[in-house]
Amino acid sequence: MNTNLRQEYSRRAISQIPRILGNMDRSDFSTTYGSMHRDYWLDKTSDFSDAVRQFGVHGLALVYKNKFKNNDFYKNEKILEWSISAMEFWASIQHNDGSFDEFYPYERGWIGPTGFTTFSIIESYKILQDHITVKQSKKIIDAIYKSTKFISNGDKEEDHLANHHAMACLSLWKSYTLFNEKKIKEAYEIAFKNFKKYHNFNEGWSIEYDGIDPGYLSATVSFLGKIFKDNKNEEIFEICRQSIDICSYFVFPNGFYAGSVGSRNTQHFYPHGFEIFGKYFPLSLSIADKMLYALKCSKVVPPEIISDRYLVYRVPEYLESFLDYTKRPKKLPFLPYEKSNLNVYINDAKIWIKSNKKFYFIVNASKGGVIKLFNKNKLIFSDSGFVGKTKTGELVTTQWIDKNYIIKKKSSSITIKGKFNKVPSNKFFNLFKNLLFRSTLLLIGWNPRLSHTLKGLIRKILMLGNRRLNINFSRQIIFEDSKIRIVDKILTNNKTKFKFLNYGDDFFVRYVPQSRYFQSQELYGRKKSLNEEELKKLNQEMAWSNETHIEILE
């Protein structure tokens, strides 16, 4: 690949610096000087300043320090001044227990607002510390120390997210390099031990709620890779080797990555860890190259379409990927989709992958049989399962991870049987609910324990658990000589009547903030719906079946 493509990392990142600055209060006479949450300080649509937005200072610090191509921000005094103000503002919105808020006041989030921003502030401080006054330094350092202590206390909000535990390790490790205190290193070692509980060492992937999510797995590789740069830990090395291998299966022939086949539906890709480990694992560079070209083609969720909240993560990620870019050898290993005879079943993850000279197929059986099928250039079939609404107003789906599914894998087929689940995230605030929620925050927000209990409850309501309904489904996927046959069956009960029922195409039902960004491949999906006659028959006879045939060439 042309090494000039490396510039795509810095070009995409630097193009978003004006957007980060536009979200920042840059008026030094303002009481919110340094806030990077425009909705708060200018639009007045938020009643608190989201701490996660302060992550943007890391990107500012990097463009100040490094002479990237077409970098007008290099050594600019205003960038320096604004960066320091952003760090000071971060310190000013910290709770007494060392925590910060992201989604609502008194959230006291463990990793989302506290771990991520602690890492970014430490990195920014190290870059700019020679230009920071003693008074400013004390304010920032004291806040970092308090947040380190908070992170060290561990997860108290049922955070079943491996990438968050990896970030806990990263923020504590960076804090240790700043303070050089034995107790911080011990806290890091405990955090790493806890992270390992979320990693499947047999198969090489890490849990995101209840399954594998390749988008966040790439984030885990990135976070651990940043530690590995100055801590050559053998376990980190092996975990990342395994994870990189697994990530390769979710690099698709059309240049997109992951999506609906993952537990959290994310389509993003964090490249920094793949550049770091490229000198050790050539497959890592195969993935990084494909994703870098995809970035050039505005795939893998480019920064310009990412929401303000998460844009701030991507800018430094790309800048650091540029700085740690690994020179490519003349020949790189094949990615799984490039192999002519591949048949892999990842047993614990319930992922089946098949590839030959003509197609690349992947299905996540643990999600009710979410399917993607590609020829060697484009997506030709996508099916995310069933989603429908009952006449009583319940949104129901087969696209849910449920350990009670019965999954039977044979040499050329796979069968999934289970029950529909009610979609829990189909909930919205109205004025009354918002007033009630804010009142609850005022009553209990002063107490960290109650705040964490509330956070865990919200996560359960919106994202976790099973809400099985007495609606049975089965999906059988069969490979035959020149086609794939998909046999779907649904059995309902007297009480359940459908208002509509759709299947096929991409759709998402789990609440995940870093998902559902538009991708051009969506334009070519085909949703199917039961027509009026089919719905009537299903509601009366309580049974429906369908066969889909997809022609393939072996």
What can you tell me about this protein's structure?
It contains 17 helices and 17 strands. The protein is α+β, with helices and mostly antiparallel strands. Strands 9, 10, 11, 12, 13, 14, 15, 16 and 17 form a 9-stranded antiparallel sheet that branches. It is globular and about 75 Å long. The model has no long low-confidence stretch (mean pLDDT 94).
What separation lies between the terminal Cα atoms? 29 Å
- The best one-word shape is globular
Largest sheet: 9 strands, antiparallel
Overall pLDDT level: 94
What structural class results from the helix and strand content? alpha+beta
Query: Strand fraction band?
Result: 15-25%
**Helix run count:** 17
- Helicity, in percent? 25-40%
The stretches of 5 or more residues where confidence is low (pLDDT under 50) are none
Number of strands: 17
Overall radius of gyration: 24 Å
Write a brief caption for the model.
It contains 17 helices and 17 strands.
Topology:
Blueprint: H1 7-14, H2 17-22, H3 38-41, H4 56-65, H5 77-92, H6 111-128, H7 134-152, H8 162-179, H9 182-196, E1 199-200, E2 205-208, E3 211-212, H10 214-228, H11 234-247, H12 272-276, H13 282-296, H14 308-323, E4 341-346, E5 351-356, E6 359-364, E7 370-375, E8 379-383, E9 386-390, E10 395-397, E11 406-409, E12 413-422, H15 431-444, H16 448-462, E13 468-479, E14 483-491, E15 498-503, E16 528-529, H17 532-541, E17 543-551
